[in-house]
Amino acid sequence: MITENSVRKLIREEIKRHFKRLLLEGGNVFSDVNSVVPSEHLDATIKKSLVDAGLKKLKYTIIGNYKKPFLGDIDIAVDVSVMAKIMKFNGEATEFWGELDKFLGRTKIKDHKINKGLKQAHFITPLVDKSGTQLNAVDKDGNDLGDPGYVQIDVMIGDLEFMKKALSASDYRSKYKAVYRNLLIADIFSQTILKTKDPDVKRKFQMNWKNGVELVDFTTNEKGKRVKLKIRKVIGDMDKLAKFLFGSKRTFKDIDSFEKLYKLMKSKDFLFKKLNRKIFDAYKTTLTRYKFPIPKEL
Question: Can you give the pTM of this predicted structure?
């Protein structure tokens, strides 16, 4: 016999399955993730993850728009040098990620994964309130899903002061997310190839979103692939990046949205204005590759 309670249970189970599928499609790397984070429990949940990961003293900045009532993507930025001190790591930079993996494996964190290429770690952690009590999973509308909640924390590891602005949300008046601003900045640098004294070696700028603007010397091998020879950091502050591209009076506030950045690129102050056509063509290609709609301004 089908009762009202059994129907409600079936509906709740279907909601949970649907919600879990949406989460996984959104980029979660753990199959146990089953909840968003209500904003009032955001800091408590992040701090719980860091305590369990043996990183209680690690300062962090929340990246992106964290003022929404329910958050599905939780990104925090932390400083690699402070993390290394907590780990008591004194080895070579190339050894850091392997040692971090071992360090986290000895802690109470429910599960973790390391993405060396993106310079980040992923934690799965209980959804908790300020008292540390685990809460039930909820969906994006705040509906209780009935099971203990687990969420994913993405930890961006690099130069914390740089990431605070570089990975920040777009100006609240913008029609476009910060990814539009950042992809355009990246394509400004992707189109600036410089010569060196050696005809076989070229030089270019590149954006390292965890560390800053880097100057890269590279050559091209017989297969046509670029081989990086030397990389050095040249700009580690988004205000200085704005000054470099648009003059000494500019700060990051002047380029913190796609609209502001695009407008300044069309002005006489833009250092690489002659490359605008190449930059905008590359930008359109990038947006298409990531399946983002091309802004009407272009």
Answer: 0.80
